Amino acid sequence: MPPAPINAIHVGCCGFALAQARYFQAFRLLEVQQTFYQPPRLETLRRWREAAPAGFEFTLKAWQLITHEPGSPTYRRLKTAIAESRRSRYGSFRGTDEVLGAWRATLEAARALKATAIVFQCPASFTPTPAHVRNLRAFFRAIRKGAAGFRLCWEPRGDWTRREALDLCQELGLVLAVDPFKGEPPSNGMRYFRLHGIEGYRCSYSDADLERLRGWCAGETYCLFNNMTMAQDARRFQSLVQGPKAS
Fold first, then answer.
1. Would the pTM of this model clear 0.85, i.e. be above it?
2. Which among 57, 60, 73, 116 counts the fewest CB atoms within 10 Å?
3. Which domains can be identified in the chain, with CATH numbers?
4. Mean pLDDT of residues grouped by 10 in the chain (247 residues)?
5. Nearest to 132 by CA among 98, 152, 157, 110
6. What CA–CA distance (Å, rounded) separates 110 from 42?
7. Comparing C-alpha atoms, which of 158, 196, 174 is closest to residue 166?
8. What is the rounded CA–CA span in Å between residue 225 and residue 164?
């Protein structure tokens, strides 16, 4: 597949890696992280939308109550603790009122931001068991109508094979989100890259790494940096693909 044209590569960070005003000057894309831990007030999200310049694009992570079970350390950031008797009703795309309620909150946040994509990042514990696959299918079929207008991106982790993940994405109308340094991207369609650092969060990307990343961008590609030096690396990559004036 030929490389993506410059205007088809979208570059940003997973979260405000700079002060908000500086971020809006530097980039035209942000993946909101707060919605994963505890969705902010809708008024807050609307203010972000209003403060962003014309043409700025938001994506966001779905609330962890959909994907992660209460044993995840990320649940420590919830405002309200979950009762022990109800812990089995959260996460793993379960068909419970609690999970569907978390989806409705995610959808409201996406609408407030006028987001273009919603990312469902799964923990490594969400493995390709028959029960998990059933949950995944039932969840995305149930939300399909309400999610119209949003691209739904799924980032599996753990023991999923590329074929298993791609087949489910094709069946359910999902975009497979990957870190291309750790897994092969889809061969066609939109690409959504989440860049977690080659050797972990503290890792910075070299010039050679960014050249490799540019080679993986084909068609419409989103490149979201999620490492300690994400702002610097994203700006360097943006300059690489769009020229110095874009940074």
1. yes
2. 73
3. 18-195 (3.20.20.410)
4. 74 97 98 98 98 97 98 94 95 98 98 98 97 98 95 95 97 97 92 96 96 95 98 97 61
5. 157
6. 10
7. 174
8. 25
